[in-house]
Amino acid sequence: MTTNGSDMDASIIRGMTQPRITRRDLFKTAGAVAGAAGLSSGLSSVAGALPNSNVGSKTWWASQHAHHQLNFANWPYYIDTLNGTHPSLVEFKKEKGTNVSYSEVIEDNPAFYQRIIPSLSAGGSTGYDIIVMTNNSPQLGYLIQGGYLIPLDQNAMTNFKKYASPTVKNPVWDRGNKYTMAYQSGWTSLAYDANKVKTPGNSLQLMFSTKYKGQVGMFADPIELGAIGLLALGINPASSKPSDWTKAATKLRQQRDSGIVAAYYGNDYINHLKSGDLAISQCYSGDVFQANVNGSKNIKLLTPKEGLLFWTDNMAIPLYAANPRDAMDAMDFYFSPLTQAVVEYYVDYICPVPTAKNELLKPTGWDKSVLTAMKAEIGLTSTQVASAPTVFPTAKENAISKPYYQFKSQTEIDTWNETFLPIVQGQ
Amino acid sequence: MSRLAGARRWGRGATPYALGAPAVVWLFALFLIPLVVMLVKALETCSPITQACTMTWHWSEFSYVWHGSAQSIFTSLRFAAYATIIDVLLSFPIAYWIAFYGGRRKNFFLLMLLVPFFVSFVIRTIIWQFLLSSSGIILTLARDLHLVGPNYHVLQTSGAVIAGLAYNYLPFTALPIFVALERIDKNLLDAARDLYSSKVEVFRRVIFPLARPGVFAAFLLTFIPAFGDYVNQQVLGGISNTMVGTVIQNYFLTFSNPTSGSALSAIVMGISLIAIVIGGIAIGARNLGDYV
Question: Which residues contact A153 (CB under 8 A, 6 or more apart)?
Fold first, then answer.
């Protein structure tokens, strides 16, 4: 994988992202050591039962009762807000008598994982009853594989079973919704500043245009960067192969080395787009909608012919959570069309409950007064939100929604990272 | 020998140790133990899922991270060196003026120098981002006056990162130099003048040599943190100027790879030590003990 500006060979690049020996080697070593010391149980303790093996069964759930207390960890600006309170949580308290401590502590999947894994692997509570992780990040897979999530109570998913969109039911990353329920979905695509980009076209090729040299922002997250690179080459990320990854990386490296890319960004890209430092940027759909609401009407979302990358943020109950029953109740409450109408009016990502659209158009219950009260702050009518294809996608958008690559092993994650990470790190 | 006298003698001998104990405990608990933990981690292999580590004596980790990150290390060294030089050149005249001409208002002038630094480090850097952005006041004005072209930008360039580093570490340079200049006995300057030294000679042969310990301390306090800095590059920098602090942060936080992160941290510490020695020699230390 020698490319211009870099005299490194593939083994060195691999060395930067991959632990020196594979886990299988590690188990082999552990086995040898255990054998030598006469500790036959050494290996079985390494490969033993998952930490969540004795929770989440029907009988276990039957013994769980509501404590009227809930600690909910979520991403910033991701819930309905009115005068400093969250109306949906106020309603939840009214219905179930549960006090919710809501914290906006998740800004990035890997960093949040690093924060909770020390307590989980030591057998202690994270302090949260609900966490929200993205399906395209390896970390959600780590939590499921490592046995760090409580299997959900399938009997307490009434709203989910009735109202959830087919796009989030029985998803590939969590078959049968054993551990997760969607919170919101979104698209990753390109956003552009209509004052600078007069002819955006309808293709992801826009991000390779030398006309906007030094004014194109890309995501620093290798998962996102690689996926849009694949899509731009016309390759479906979900069915891509490592050889495709290399092709996409070559193209992205050319984009960087010819000076088109200004920088690789995290969530702050939207500010650079608003301030005019960027003409084009990789983006999350909801951010563009919110930027428009907040006055930056010149920021537009591109709907490329190659497709829109579709991701989902998922609610899950971490192992050792103190209030699993309350978490279950809250998660199902968020699948009520009334709740989602209120959430969506503020959040503007893709709604996991399609019938919430009817509630936004014609509220039928507690949501009515809340939607009216929120209107002044939102500055949009609820009809406008109901008719936004970025909130309630039409058949046209659903047809071009593309899922991410589903990693099957740690080796694949390492290969992906070693392919795309050096681009971000200037190597 | 009475018991009391014995106790007193023991007590007198132990006094320096007792007084030094807090420093020793501090050094052990907050420096040596973390350092050893870091080195141990670099030689282990960790599971990305459980983050559990097993000692596998992977010495090759060091050469792997060195090959992968040498470029960012050199970038960091270069940026830190530029920022340090800029800071010394800027703060020496400031410190000199305050020390020799500040009079009764010395403390007020020092306070003025420090006021911007009452704001948090990250917030200050983000404010620079606002100031230097293409739609910020400085560039908008410069464009309107046709001083720069329509596509001129400052953010994402190496210059922006160096400027950010120089700005953020300025007080760490100015204060030690001020302290050294302040301590100079003014009679020495009169004596030099009495012996027919010119102003330039007074500076070159009296003031600067006496200020050297301050310059060396300023170098240490500016260069070392600037070398490991990762905030300025991420907020103000672009793609061609990844600093090693960012690479280390990515290893730990993005790739769940504490092994490589620790190995690279150890390399960075080693290079810092070498840089201290080289810097000390360049500034004119005969032995480092003189200045510490």
Answer: A56, A61, A64, A328
The answer to whether the CB of A280 falls within 8 A of the CB of A194 is no
Of A26, A261, A276, the CB nearest to B239: A261
Put simply, the answer to whether A256 touches B239 (Cβ < 8 Å) is: yes
Name the DSSP class of B61. H
Sign of CA dihedral A318, A320, A326, A329: positive
* Cα A132 from Cα A317, distance rounded (Å): 9
pLDDT digits (tens, 9 = 90+) for A213-266: 989 999 989 999 999 999 999 999 999 999 999 999 999 999 999 999 998 988
**ipTM of predicted assembly, 2 dp:** 0.71
Task: Enumerate domains of chain A plus CATH numbers.
Answer: 1-40 (no CATH), 58-185+312-354+362-371 (3.40.190.10), 186-310+402-424 (3.40.190.10)
DSSP B55: E
Strand bridging mode A280-284 / A69-73: unpaired
At residue B282, what is the residue type? A
Backbone φ and ψ for B40, nearest 5 degrees, come out as -65, -45
Strands (E), A59-148: 69-73, 99-103, 131-134
Q: Under CATH, to which class is B60-290 assigned?
A: mainly alpha
- pLDDT tens by residue, A69-91: 999 999 998 999 998 899 999 99
Q: Does A118 touch chain B (CB under 8 A)?
A: yes
Residue with tokens 């290798």: A222
Those residues whose C-beta lies under 8 Å from the C-beta of residue B106, and which sit 6 or more positions away, are B98, B99
